[in-house]
Amino acid sequence: MLILPRCAADATRILAARAGLAAPLPFWHLRRLHGPTGTPLNAPTCGNCDSPLFGRYCAQCGQHAHDSARSLGALLHDGWHVVTHLDGRFWSTMHLLLLRPGQLTREYFAERRARYVPPVRLYLVLSLLVFALASLTAHVQSSTLRPGGPSTPAHAVDLDLRQMGITPKDCSKLMSSWPWLQQALRASCERNVESGGKEVLHAARANLPRMMFVFLPLMAAVMLLLYWFPRRFYVEHLVFFLHNHAALFLAMTLPMLLSLLAGAVPAMARLETASVAVVALYAPWYVYRSVRVVYGQGRLLTLLKIVFVSLAYVTFLMITLLLTLIVSVLTT
Fold it and tell me: Where are the domains of the chain?
C-alpha cells in the first residue's frame, strides 16, 4: 500500500524504515538516504543517465533496464526486440503508404506516430534507395549498350564535351553580369572540357538528392497558399509531400529492379514495360486520393488545385534542376 507523507517527519520515518533503521533520522539527514537525483538509495537508476527508473525503460534516455550488459540474455533480448519492433513498424507503414493514400499523414497528425516509421526517416531511406537504383541501372544499361562491348572503358558513353565540338576557347565566351560568377563558370568550363564533362554529371547525380530538400519545402509553401482556409500548419503540408514522394519513390523501385533483372533475363523486359505502365497510372491516382483524404475537399475543387500544384511542381522542379546543374558546374 502506498503511504503518502504528510510532513517532513513522516518522510524521514518512511525512508528510515526502507533503509532498515530502527529510529527515524533528523530531517537534515534526509539527503543521506537519497542518491544524486533525489531518489531513495534502494530505488533503481538508469545506468546510462542515472535517472530513476519507473518501468522497463528509462523515461529520460529510453535505455532498457537490463540487469547487466554482459548478459547473453540481454543481448538476445535487444536483438529480438529491435527486429520484431522495426519489422512491425515497417510493414504497418508500408501498408498505409502504398495502399491507403493520405492515411499515413492523417495518422501522424492524429498523434499515432510511434507505430509508424517517422516521415523524414522514411523519405530519406526510400530516396537513397531510388537514387542508388537509378545510378546502378544507368551503369548497367551503359555497360550493355556500350558499342565496344565489355572491354570498352565505362567513360566511352559518358558526356564528352570535346566530341560535341566544345573547346577551351569556347569557355571564354561565357558571360555573366556578375564578374565572380563569370570567372567561376569559365574556369569550370575549361576544367570540364579537359576531362570530358564526366565530373559534372557525377556531381549532378550526387547533388540532386540534396537539392530535393530545397524543392520539397518550396512545394509545401505552395500548398500553404492554396489551403488557406481552414488554416493548416506549414509542417502538415511538408509531411504530406514527404509521404507522397516516399510512396512514389517506393513504386518506382519496381521498374528499376525489373530493369536490372532484364539485363540477365530477357523475358523480364515485358514485365518491366508493364510495370512502367502500372506506375504511370498509379502515380496520378495516388496523388488525387491522398489530397482528398488529407484535405477533405470536393472532387472538382481537388482536381483544380491538383492542376495548379502540378504546374507549380514542374516550374519549381525545373528551377531546382537548373540550380543543381549550376552548383555542380561551380563545384567541379
Answer: 119-145+197-330, 160-196
